[in-house]
Design a protein that fits this description.
About 45% of the residues lie in helices and about 20% in strands. It has six helices and six strands; from the N terminus they run αβαβαβαβαβαβ. A six-stranded parallel sheet has the order 2-1-3-4-5-6, with helices on both faces. Helix 6 links the parallel strand 5 and strand 6. Helix 4 packs parallel to helix 5.
Length: about 140
């Protein structure tokens, strides 16, 4: 018999997870949105094209999770993740990047993001990362 779910986990299961996508490339935002919207438990509540826009939309839209590109104008994804991890905002972040290196993974961990997904593995890993984060864990691509 499994232990009872916490109130926070029960609430999360009773409603759709609100996700904001922040990437400066419209085609990437569209692909991520398409991937996420195929799953009934996810709702894409908005999109942002740079780090400043992401922070403004996080404040306005109150997503549960934000998918952040590392390389964005004005404020990069690592800076946004760091700001979120230091704030009282309950939003979690997963970083989506084309940079597949141990140095980048370490930088993502330092930022406070809960996930690191390499764009070349996004089709396989993004949903796994979100599931791990929802369960209170972390996910870092290999």
């Amino acid at each position: 018999m499994s232990p009872p779910a916490s109130n926070a986990n029960v609430q999360a299961m009773d409603r759709r997870l609100r996700i904001l996508i922040a990437d400066d490339h419209p085609i990437i935002r569209k692909a991520v949105r398409s991937t996420l919207e195929r799953h009934p438990r996810f709702e894409v509540c908005g999109e942002a094209e740079d780090g400043i826009d992401a922070l403004e939309k996080i404040d306005q839209l109150k997503p549960d999770l934000v998918v952040l590109d590392v390389s964005m104008p004005y404020k990069d994804g690592l800076a946004v993740a760091t700001e979120l991890s230091r704030s009282s905002a309950p939003v979690k972040s997963v970083v989506l990047t084309m940079h597949n290196s141990a140095e980048m993974a370490a930088a993502v961990k330092r930022s406070g993001a809960k996930g690191f997904v390499v764009k070349s593995h996004a089709a396989r890993d993004l949903l796994r990362a979100i599931d791990a984060i929802l369960e209170g864990g972390v996910f870092f691509s290999e």
